[in-house]
Amino acid sequence: MRRQQGMRLDERYVPYLQMAGLYHLARLNDRWFRIDEPLLSAFVERWRPEMHTFHMPFGEYMIMLQDVAYQLELAVDGHYVSGCLTGFHIYIYIEGGRPAWVWFKEFLGVIPPSSQVQKFAVNCSWFQKTFGECPEGANEDTVRRFARAYIMMLLGTQLFADKFGNHIHIRWLPYVARIEEMGSYSWGSAALAWLYRCMCRVANRHVVKLADPLQLLQS
DSSP secondary-structure letter at 156? Predict the structure, then answer.
C-alpha cells in the first residue's frame, strides 16, 4: 500500500490546482493507495495491443474517456497536450528561445544539482526535499512556485510516470509556466493515450515493469 508520491497537499495550492483542473487528482494522491498486483498482472495478460482492449471471460472491454472523466475528474475536451512525451531531449530550448534550465530557475526558483539530473529529468527525492513543504507565511510568488512543483509531480508520477517512477521530466515546464491555462487542456485524453501506450509496451514479453496511471487502470 503506498501513495503515488510523498509531497503533501498544501491547502494554499488548491486555487492553482483548481485552475489547472487537477484538484481531484491531487486529493487522490494525498491518500494511500493499495496496489493489487495480481489484478494488474491479470489486466496485462488480457490486453490485446492490436485492438486496445482487454479480453475478458464476458467479452471485450476497453477503458474509455468517460472512465477517465469519472474516476479522475480530468477534462476530456479542450486543447490537446502536445510535444510532451517524446523527443524532448532533442530540443535544448523551449518556448521563447530560452534554455530549458533557465525556465526551470525562473518558474521554480532553483536549479537542481547535476547529481540529481538525468538528461532532462530530475530525481524525485530532490523534488520532494526541495518542494515538499511550503514555508509558513510564504508570499504569493513562493506559494505559486511550490504549486508549480507540486503539479509537475502530479503529472510526472501519477498521469505520465515512467516504469521506475523516480524522476520527474521537465517537459511540463511550458504548462506550469501558464498555470491559468492548464485547465483548458484535455489531460484526460492524454492520460488515456499514455495508458494505452504503456499497456502495449508491457505486452511485450521482454518488458518487465509497467508504467501508467495505476489508479486509473486498477479502478
Answer: I
Identify residue 205 by its one-letter amino acid code. R
- pLDDT tens-digit map of 58-110: 888 888 999 999 989 999 999 988 765 455 555 556 666 667 888 889 899 99
Per-state percent for the chain, helix, strand, coil, to nearest 5: 50, 10, 35
In this structure, the number of other CB atoms found within 10 A of the CB of residue 71 comes to: 19
Give pTM, 2 decimals.
Answer: 0.86
Question: b/e map of 26-63 (b: 16 or more CB within 10 Å)?
Answer: bebbeeeeeeeeeebeebbeebeeeebebeeeeeeeeb
Residue 152, beta-bridge partner list: none
What is residue 195's three-state secondary structure?
Answer: helix
CA quadruple 84, 90, 96, 102: dihedral sign: positive
User: Of all helices (H) and strands (E), which one includes residue 24?
Assistant: helix 23-29
Helices (H), 31-186: 37-45, 65-72, 100-108, 124-131, 140-154, 173-176
Residue ranges per structural domain of the chain: 11-218
Q: What is the DSSP letter of 88?
A: G
Per-residue CA distances from 140 to 15, 74, 103, 134, 176 (Å): 12, 26, 19, 11, 15
Question: What phi and psi values does residue 38 have, to the nearest 5 degrees?
Answer: -60, -40
Nearest CA among 122, 109, 176 for reference residue 147: 176
Whether 105 and 111 have beta carbons less than 8 Å apart is answered as yes
